[in-house]
Design goal:
This protein is of the alpha/beta class. It folds into two domains: 163 residues, VC0802-like, CATH 3.30.2130; 209 residues, HUPs (Rossmann fold, 3-Layer(aba) Sandwich), CATH 3.40.50.620. Helix content is 38%, strand content 19%. Strands 1, 2, 3, 4, 5, 6, 7, 8 and 9 form a nine-stranded mixed beta sheet that branches. The chain has a six-stranded mixed beta sheet with strand order 14-13-10-11-12-15.
Length: 401
């Protein structure tokens, strides 16, 4: 059956009061951007819901796009008919036949916002339900747990029929909670952290550190592919590629072995923070998970955090690895993350990194090195690209700063 429009329900956005208009406006923009490949569709949003008018476009590919947009609770393809009970019955029958399997059950639920309609809600339920029972021998009514729930919504502009309620991504519209930098390493954890951060309405840009020749072009491409996959939810993704070789070599040569990991993470955080400031971000997101590795103990996190007062978002902090892997598989980043290309976090790994580093010691070790010159050089050499899920990586390498 050809659908006329798609009904979008907001979910959590409905709890917003005075700020709801801002959230709905951001969601509308995100939906419009996601559906730019479908120029015929028109979007109408109000405080309670959104309608995607299809104007002849097929509904299935549009539903697939909408399922990835944060801020959408559920989606229902809809048929519109005139406010005539005969038309409602015939269209309802067609719709139920599309989903019915022999022996299955159904229920009619009517919502009547147009109180001038000739039948009340019970009258519509009986008229439509009786018509379906008369024309389908192998179906029965189940009001508690039906296989098919037919929604009949009678509004002033017409009658809307739907049988599907498709789960959306939930959360808040990306961009409604500001912007942050995601430190994307190429492993399993950081893409999941990015996904969960975006689900709370945060627009992300990626910061990735690479150390040629110790890390390969394939490792860099892996991160670009991860960023492209995350752009499913962000619309597009800006990637900042930061050369880190000189800094990493200096740390390896000049910092005592047990503290090299701590210093490495501190320098990364300083660079990510400076890029954040220049691109008007409000926070930094990481894939850190408490106790997973030596640099993720509370003592290590305190020593690393000491270089900035910027909020650090750590959505994975209390999750176990199996939970993280399950999400990575759901968002299709897992197979990319496990590709065997090393990133700079795995090179120069000390044999016995400090799990309880002292801030005073790491500051003393770093004070004898002119890190400022190295940091500035890395920033000046940083490259930027924009990736989109429907495109090859767009190499827009530019002077970042």
């Amino acid at each position: 059956m050809k659908y006329d429009r798609i009904l979008v329900r907001y979910g959590e956005l409905s709890l917003k009061r005075k700020n709801r208009k801002k959230f709905v406006g951001k969601l509308t923009k995100n939906v419009r951007d996601a559906l730019e490949a479908f120029p015929s569709v028109k979007i109408h949003a109000d405080r309670e819901r959104m309608f995607i008018h299809l104007h002849g476009e097929e509904s299935a590919p549009i539903v697939e796009c909408l399922k990835n947009i944060f801020g959408i609770q559920s989606i229902s393809p809809v048929v519109k008919v005139d406010k005539d009970i005969d038309e409602i019955q015939k269209a309802s029958l067609q719709l139920v036949q599309q989903f019915h399997q022999a022996g299955g059950s159904f229920k009619v639920v009517t919502k009547r916002s147009d109180k001038s309609f000739s039948l009340d809600t019970n009258g519509v339920n009986h008229a439509v339900g009786g018509y379906i029972l008369k024309h389908i021998d192998t179906i029965h009514v189940n009001v508690k747990r039906p296989d098919i729930k037919l929604l009949v919504e009678i509004r002033h502009e017409g009658v809307f029929l739907s049988c599907e309620t498709i789960q959306g991504a939930g959360g808040l519209p990306v961009g409604s909670s500001g912007k942050a930098m995601l430190m994307l390493s190429g492993g399993i954890d950081s893409p999941v952290a990015g996904y969960l951060t975006m689900k709370r309405g945060v627009e992300l840009e990626v910061v990735h550190f690479h150390s040629p020749p110790f890390t390969s072009e394939r490792a860099k491409q892996k991160v670009i592919d991860l960023a492209r996959q995350l752009s499913f939810y962000n619309g597009k993704m800006t990637v900042h590629l930061v050369p880190f070789t000189k800094i990493q070599e200096t740390i390896h040569q000049r910092i005592p072995s047990g503290y090299t990991m701590t210093s490495t993470r501190r320098m990364m955080l300083i660079l990510a923070d400076r890029i954040r400031a220049q691109h008007h971000g409000l926070a930094i997101a990481t894939g850190e998970n408490l106790g997973q590795v030596a640099s993720q103990t509370l003592e290590s996190l305190e020593a690393i955090n000491d270089v900035t007062t910027t909020p650090i978002l750590r959505p994975l902090i209390s999750m176990d690895k199996n939970e993280i892997i399950a999400i990575s598989q759901k968002i299709n980043t897992y197979d990319i993350s496990i590709l065997p290309y090393e990133d700079c976090c795995t090179i120069f790994t000390p044999p016995a990194p400090k799990t309880k580093p002292k801030k005073e010691k790491i500051k003393a070790y770093e004070s004898s090195i002119d890190f400022e010159a190295l940091l500035e050089e890395a920033l000046q050499s940083t490259q930027t690209m924009t990736v989109h899920i429907n495109e090859t990586a767009i190499d827009e390498f530019a002077d970042l700063l």
